[in-house]
Design goal:
alpha/beta, Rossmann fold, seven-stranded parallel beta sheet, 9 helices, 7 strands
């Protein structure tokens, strides 16, 4: 039986990249997005993989949406082997007190409430079926790094890392593996928004990102391979390690990279 993977927020960016890489490895994949239109477009791009692709729309900040996503995955493929909480939303580059209250609430609901609920739901179902893997996506702020204008988003990612580590400790001894995946700096729309203005600060960030960032396909291929292979109870899969960062810095004078012009 093929491994079945569910990825929340997988109609674009790193989530879609992961979906494609899992399919290339022969897995079944269940896509998720907030709208029927986003699901339709993503599914069309993967139509060459035939019956190994399923899609379920729904706002993952809702517990009911997570339950439906899991149930639909089981209905299509019989079980869920890997569940990835990738869905997350950012906000405009601005000070925390300038974030609109509605937007603030939405970021917290999707990035924290949604992940917590989905982790619990997937864990209970996987424990009942006899095993499985849950991965939560880290991001800016997970390691404590601070970026002006992204305090709220960074706070949610920092909280997510603590939640995952602590949840995994509580679940120790069960048949479910619970860990994090850290993609580092990936060339996505979310990263581009952090350097969307013409300020001197943005120009400096662009130079840094051109050295440190990588394309979605490169990072997604590494992460999928590691997720399938890991046997750790609480895996911590990281792309942009210190060693890789040092290598990028040393190679920077010899490489022409222009992701962020």
């Amino acid at each position: 039986m093929n491994t079945t993977v569910v990825i929340t927020g997988s109609t674009r960016g790193i989530g879609f990249g992961l979906a494609r890489c899992f399919l290339e490895r022969g897995c079944n994949v269940v896509l998720n997005g907030r709208s029927d239109e986003s699901i339709r477009k993503a599914t069309e791009q993967l139509q060459g993989y035939g019956g190994r692709v399923a899609a379920v729309s729904g706002d993952i900040s809702s517990r009911e949406a997570s339950i439906r996503l899991y149930d639909e995955a089981v209905s299509h493929f019989g079980r869920v082997d890997i569940w990835i909480n990738n869905a997350g939303i950012g906000h405009e580059m601005c000070s925390t007190w300038e974030v609109d209250h509605h937007e603030l609430s939405q970021v917290l609901r999707v990035n924290i409430d949604g992940v917590v609920s989905a982790t619990i739901i997937a864990f209970l179902r996987m424990k009942e079926q006899g095993g499985g893997k849950i991965f939560n996506m880290e991001g800016l702020g997970s390691d404590g790094f601070m970026l002006n204008g992204q305090t709220l988003y960074g706070t949610t990612k920092r909280a997510l890392t603590y939640f995952t580590r602590s949840f995994a400790q509580e679940a120790r001894g069960t048949s479910v593996q619970i860990g994090t995946i850290s993609p580092g700096m990936v060339v996505t729309d979310m990263l581009r928004r952090t350097v969307s203005d013409a300020s001197a600060e943005s120009q400096k960030k662009k130079q840094f990102f051109n050295i440190m960032a990588d394309e979605v396909a490169t990072v997604a291929s590494f992460l999928t391979r590691k997720m399938v292979a890991t046997t750790a109870q609480s895996p911590k899969i990281k792309w942009l390690t210190k060693q890789r960062m040092i290598g990028k810095i040393l190679l920077a004078p010899f490489r022409k990279r222009n992701f962020f012009a």
